[in-house]
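BUG: 3D viewer hangs when loading the predicted structure for this chain

Environment: internal workstation, default settings.
Expected: structure renders.
Actual: progress bar stalls at 90%.

Input used:
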Amino acid sequence: MTEIIGWASSFILLLTLVKQVYKQWKDGKTEGVSKWLFIGQLFASIGFTTYSFLVGNWVFTITNGLLTINNIIGISLYFYFLKKNKKERAGA
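Structure tokens produced before the viewer hung:
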């Protein structure tokens, strides 16, 4: 039962954060998005992934590994759209 609660909670967390990255990608903007949030989450996720692996907790190892990937995508999109939007404003 505890594993089910862990996996369900992880799924909800992942959906929430993936939805934010998807919205950022779909909108093509960096407005309202904090690069520091993604950077902080990235380092926290790497630390939690390592810790979870070392203590043998697979729910959190997998969840935090996926959050790490999500954060890398979020940071990449942030800087891509920041650069793209600056070019568009300079050309307008």
